[in-house]
Design brief:
Strand 1 and strand 2 form a beta hairpin. The chain is globular, with a radius of gyration of 19 Å. It contains eight helices and four strands. The relative contact order is 0.14. It has one domain. Strands 2-1-3-4 form a four-stranded antiparallel β-sheet, covered by helices on one side. The longest helix is centred in the C-terminal third of the chain and has 24 residues. It is of the alpha+beta class.
């Protein structure tokens, strides 16, 4: 039997049931190889997506090549569909991937934060490229320990693929990556505050930014929560 042809794109669907029982479905399409989001705003991008509108101080992009901020552009659809909610409105969200379906009843800011993290990671902003492997293996509503685990595993595997002879045991590179991401989050909060009087989008991003702050120094306290899991293996030693 011939192997089934794998599409060069894949989907993740977020299906929201709002407090008034209305449905909002957001179907995200990604390039399977690059993890860049293929969805584009149907209308002209709003003013707050312009690259020079509160442009990040560490932004490497030029207005000539990128008239609009790639991160902000990816947030437009979420903003239009979910931006009228208040942070603590209760919603039900079903998330459907190729492998599984996840359902959660939570606040609007938690639900929006989950999809927001996904579309930010899938932007063309160079500072978000580190997040693309995690977006490919999306874990909605990841908690503190899960986020730490995924970030560390992604970073160390990236170093392996990079072919460096010495591992970055200090994790200084990871700290720098998340410092850059935190700066993007700060700038994006200003953009979203200019876009809407409702607070769900802004507070969803603040909620997301808390996880970026987990990767700020010193990391020893951050790693302490998962260190004990390695105790049986480390006590037994690395066996060849």
């Amino acid at each position: 039997m011939a192997n089934k042809r794998v599409s060069n794109t894949f989907r993740i669907d977020y299906r929201f049931t709002l407090p008034d029982r209305r449905r909002e479905d957001i179907s995200l399409r990604f390039d399977r190889a690059t993890m860049v989001l293929r969805n584009h705003p149907r209308q002209s991008p709003p003013f707050w997506t312009e690259l020079t509108f509160n442009q990040c101080s560490h932004c490497p992009l030029s207005k000539t090549e990128y008239p609009h901020c790639p991160v902000a552009l990816n947030l437009v659809t979420v903003y239009h569909r979910m931006g009228k909610l208040m942070s603590f409105d209760k919603v039900t969200v079903n998330i459907i991937t190729e492998q599984r379906r996840i359902c959660n009843r939570c606040s609007a800011q938690e639900a929006i934060s989950s999809i927001m993290g996904l579309v930010i990671a899938a932007s063309r902003c160079p500072h978000t490229h580190f997040l693309k492997p995690m977006a490919r293996f999306h874990l909605p509503f990841a908690n503190r320990e899960e986020t730490i685990w995924r970030a560390l595993a992604t970073y160390l595997l990236a170093r392996h693929f990079e072919g460096l002879k010495k591992a970055d045991l200090s994790l200084d590179g990871l700290v720098k990556i998340y410092d850059n991401i935190a700066r993007i989050n700060d700038a994006m909060v200003v953009r979203l505050r200019a876009a809407s009087r409702k607070d769900s989008m802004v507070n969803a991003l603040v909620h997301l930014d808390v996880f970026a702050k987990f990767m700020m120094p010193p990391l020893d306290d951050t790693l302490a929560s998962i260190r004990a899991l390695f105790k049986p293996f480390l006590e037994n030693g690395f066996r060849k």
